[in-house]
Write a structure and sequence with these properties.
By secondary structure, this protein is an alpha/beta fold. It contains 9 helices and 8 strands. The longest helix has 14 residues.
Length: 248
């Protein structure tokens, strides 16, 4: 019997979450509590649409011609997709049998305990790449903005880098919160540490946007960053230049 997962939503023609045109599977459940989250409804565990790995792959294969033409594939995001490791393992096993490129968009929001490490050892050989969101290096600021300590997340990054996983590093740029020069330099140094094996392929700075605010309101929550401005193009460029020094 195929392993089931809790699915938040599906996007069939994504073009910003990995190379090429991608089938994006958003899984339900998250261990982080980001104040700027644009999928606030994805936090709750064990809810959403229940799908088997085979059902997902059947949907993915409908778009194979677009993947083949563009160098795309499947990206699994969330929530935090790594909270459903057994489902990911079966899903990616089926995808690799079909020659589908596999990518995970993660915030590293799982603990490296014995169970998870054992499952990651099965998942990593099936994973062509990961996009790791490094939100903030300052531990106090991270705890306030993200709701959890950052050291387990940073340790996860070190683990997958050591395992040789190809990485895209992402940073959401929020004026006054994640854009300090000191923290960006610290992030660049962390990227340099991860890139010891030369597996960090790309760095992306994602400008903050308030588009998730409506979801918070619909769910009956006050949006924590109400009134927060978006960064300017110059601010994004400055951050990109600092972070890319980590690849020098």
């Amino acid at each position: 019997m195929s392993t089931t997962g809790y699915v938040h939503s599906i996007e069939t023609f994504g073009n910003v979450d990995g190379p090429g045109i991608r089938f994006i599977l958003f899984l339900q459940g998250c261990s982080l509590k980001c104040k700027y989250c644009h999928n606030r409804d994805s936090w709750k565990m064990n809810t959403g649409k229940i799908m088997t790995a085979q059902e997902v792959v059947t949907e993915v294969l409908k778009y194979r011609e677009f993947f083949d033409a563009s160098g795309g594939g499947i990206t699994v995001s969330g929530g935090e997709p790594l909270l459903q490791l057994p489902f990911l393992i079966e899903l990616f096993t089926l995808c690799k049998k079909e020659g589908i490129h596999t990518n995970i968009d993660t915030s590293g929001g799982i603990r490296l305990n014995n169970r998870n490490v054992g499952l990651l050892e099965q998942l990593i050989p099936l994973t062509d790449m990961m996009m790791l969101d490094v939100k903030l290096m300052n531990p106090i600021g991270h705890l306030d903005l993200i709701g959890v300590p950052n050291e387990p997340i940073l340790e996860f990054g070190r683990y997958i880098a050591k395992a040789g996983v190809k990485l895209w590093i992402r940073r959401v740029l929020i004026p006054r919160l994640t854009d300090s020069e000191d923290d960006l330099i610290a992030t660049a140094n962390y990227i340099k540490e991860l890139n010891t094996l030369g597996t960090v392929e790309r760095i992306e700075v994602l400008p903050y946007h308030p588009m998730g605010e409506s979801k918070w309101v619909e769910l009956g929550f006050e949006y924590p960053l109400k009134g927060q401005r978006i960064p300017t193009k110059d601010e994004v460029k400055i951050a990109e230049d600092i972070l890319k020094a980590g690849l020098a």
